[in-house]
Write a structure and sequence with these properties.
alpha/beta, TIM Barrel, Rossmann fold, Immunoglobulin-like, 3 domains, six-stranded mixed β-sheet, four-stranded antiparallel β-sheet
Length: 703
């Protein structure tokens, strides 16, 4: 069904409703209207990295992990599998009359906020710190969720619009202050690209932007989203955000006024209950029948496009056997293998021989953790392979010892309940082993969404420090004192510095993120060389004492690889492999008003097959406005056999190489643009860590 046909049918259906019936449909838990053949429908569902919260589903690596693949095609394939499982569940829910929360096919994902500050607990839900990478992966994810059939397979929703990335503790009343340069250069591009790429929904943010609540923002929603970008899908509030308009933002005085100002700004749907007050707003003449009708028509256009009123419904042939099926498990494992970033590998210590007959200790709070596989916004898999489980499966001839060693953060000496101070046990296991795998990091109880829990390390889900929690640092340093061969594996969603002592001692360091239900097996396959790591960092990993700007400061100066002051510990775009690559012959192929095409030759000069993530960055000479150090503008994954070479072409959308003025306009920069082509960004730290410099290609900005 075309969008135009769906909208016409929605108009005809909504025209038959009373004002009260229309108002009832603007809440996320929309009731049935039996006389019109409309079933109850609950709009609230999540799909960040699998179907969330409603029984068995494949738990894929979390969004920040998938971002490390830099592979839009792979992310789209994962999203298609998630959408398939969503339809499979929906078909059964409808059959049994279950219209509860998390039972629909309107998914409130992806989270495309920019991970501007490494302390933010929800950064794990994003595709990282770069606007281009976020846009590229988000569009592919959305296409995978929504499908390309006559009817939408499911709907995706870009969130949180806009300028939202902590602090979690004050998000319900926080005011993000941002100038137009940063707004249009950093915070809005992914929303613009996903809207123009066909996303069905947009979710507003909790915070205010420059004094106005985002879910009732006349400039953001009414002007930019609806008029300038011509978005004709549905807008939904974040959950409970409309209550914040009067309770915490104090933007208006009453519940009815909050509901009215949101609806007037074309927020169609309320996740929460504030729109119950639209009845009062209507009676007080704060809203019109036209306002109500427009919102209802937007919502029913979506429901028609999903095929709700068809008989039979589209995609009804997708069966329950698709949930966490073998095909999706294989995809899950492949994705996890391609998302882990090899940060250190001294003297080529890795890969290990999987047939080794040695003692291996697996130590740390994430050695047997399932929650660290899941991340947050997770479903529930039918099978989990923890780090220790994966090591046992792959290194079958080794003698494996497992010790937790410590908790994530808390350490109590002589605690009556025990299981609080286990460091000596972990050190004992390491001392008896030839190789120790330290499984460190966090989980969603430490970094996550508005946990409401504060201690020395975490503030309602945000980190207070970029170092490991003290008790884990103590364990790691003690293990390094007794074992020569230490491999550090970090399961977390953000930047963590393991400290100089551990970093200098460890033979290898792997950033494993929250890698999904089969993450332990994926890790073991990388350790054994069954898989050659290819992932790259979608965020900057900072030194623990890096002078990051105040968390509440949303100016981009000093933030992310694009505006960092000083050096990163491990830069955005960095990641090691078990093979090496060489680049030469950068060329300008063509240029027109929409894009520039360049090419380069890349060769696998190592001994094994590998997947290289080729990256293109732009920097600017003599620009009249502020520009990043460099800006990622194209990415292409290429798989090469040992000794194989390939000429690779890159299409660069001019959007990504324009400069942004203080008024938020994208313009051709003055002077010259330099393009850098290689397997990393062109900073000095990456050059040193990888041992080569990117190719340079200078072009005039107006060619």
């Amino acid at each position: 069904m075309t969008k135009e046909t769906a909208r016409q049918k929605a108009r005809e259906l909504v025209a038959k409703m009373t004002a009260e019936e229309k108002l009832s449909q603007l809440l996320y838990n929309a009731p049935a209207i039996e006389r019109l053949g409309i079933e109850e429908y609950n709009w609230w569902n999540e799909s960040s990295h699998g179907i969330h919260g409603a029984g068995t589903a494949t738990v894929f690596p979390h969004a920040i992990a998938m971002a490390s693949t830099f592979d839009a095609e792979l992310v789209g394939t994962v999203a298609d599998a998630v959408s398939t499982e969503g339809r499979a569940k929906y078909n059964e829910h409808i059959k049994y009359g279950d219209h509860d929360i998390f039972k629909g096919i309107t998914f409130w994902a992806p989270n495309i906020n920019i991970f501007r500050d490494p302390r933010w607990g929800r950064g794990q839900e994003t595709f990282g710190e770069d606007p281009f990478l976020t846009s590229m992966l988000a569009v592919s994810y959305i296409n995978g969720i929504q499908g390309n059939g006559e009817f939408l397979k499911a709907t995706a929703c870009s969130k949180h619009f806009a300028v939202h990335s902590g602090p979690e503790k004050t998000r319900h009343g926080f005011n993000s202050v941002v100038d137009k340069h940063d707004l249009f250069e950093t915070y809005l591009p992914a929303f613009e690209k996903t809207v123009k790429g066909g996303v069905s929904g947009v979710m507003g943010a909790y915070n205010r932007l420059n004094g106005e609540p985002c879910c009732a923002h006349s400039y953001l929603i009414s002007q930019i989203l609806r008029k300038e970008w011509k978005f004709d899908g549905y807008v939904v509030s974040d959950c409970g955000a409309l209550k914040d308009i009067y309770k915490f933002h104090k933007f208006v005085e009453t519940r009815a006024e909050a509901a009215a100002v949101a609806l007037k700004s074309t927020c169609d749907l309320n996740c929460g209950d504030t729109y119950e007050a639209l009845v009062d707003a209507y009676e007080q003449d704060l809203i019109t029948d036209e306002d109500i009708t427009a919102a209802a028509e937007n919502l029913f256009t979506i429901r028609y496009r999903l095929g709700e009123f068809e008989n039979p419904r589209p995609y009804s042939d997708i069966g329950y056997d698709k949930l966490d099926c073998d095909e999706h498990k294989a995809l899950n494992l492949k994705t996890a293998e391609q998302c882990m970033v090899l940060l250190e590998n001294k003297d080529n210590f890795l890969p290990l021989d999987k047939n080794i007959n040695k003692k291996i200790a697996v130590i740390g709070p994430n050695s047997l953790s399932v929650t660290a596989l899941e991340g947050n916004y997770n479903g529930y898999a039918s099978e989990y392979v923890t780090v220790a489980d994966g090591i046992r499966r792959v290194f079958k001839d080794a003698e494996i010892k497992v010790e937790k060693g410590c908790n994530y953060c808390d350490e109590y000496l002589n605690h009556w309940s025990g299981f609080r101070n286990m460091i000596s046990d972990g050190v004992a296991a390491a001392a008896e082993s030839n190789i120790t795998i330290l499984a460190l990091g966090l989980d969603r109880t430490v970094e996550g969404e508005d946990t409401g829990f504060d201690d020395d390390y975490t503030a309602s889900g945000d980190k207070r420090s970029l170092f490991l929690p003290a008790t884990q640092q103590k364990l790691a340093e003690a293990v390094c004192d007794v074992c020569d061969n230490v491999i550090v594996v970090l399961l977390c969603g953000s930047s963590i510095d393991i400290g100089e002592k551990v970093r200098s001692h460890a033979k290898a360091v792997i950033q494993a993120w929250y890698p999904g239900s089969l993450g332990g097996l994926a890790l073991a396959n990388i350790l054994s060389g069954e898989v050659n790591p290819s992932a790259k960092l979608p965020v900057t990993i900072y030194k623990g004492d890096h002078n990051i700007p105040d968390f509440e400061d949303y100016n981009m100066k000093g933030r992310t690889y694009r505006y960092i002051d000083g050096d990163a510990l491990y830069p955005f775009g960095f990641g090691l492999s078990y093979t090496k690559y060489a680049y030469k012959n950068a060329k300008l192929i063509s240029a027109d008003s929409e894009k520039i095409t360049v090419s380069a030759e890349v060769e696998n000069i190592g001994r094994i097959k590998g997947k290289e993530i080729i990256q293109v960055y732009a920097s600017y000479t003599d620009s009249r406005v502020a520009t990043p150090h460099w800006q990622l503008c194209s990415v292409k994954p290429v798989t090469l056999e040992a000794g194989e070479k390939a000429d690779v072409a890159f299409d660069i959308d001019r959007y990504w190489i324009k400069a942004v003025t203080t008024d938020g306009e994208r313009v051709d920069p003055d002077g010259k643009i330099t393009l850098y082509i290689g397997g990393h960004q062109p900073d000095n730290v990456s050059n040193r860590l990888l041992g080569y410099q990117c190719l340079e290609l200078g072009i005039m900005s107006k060619i």
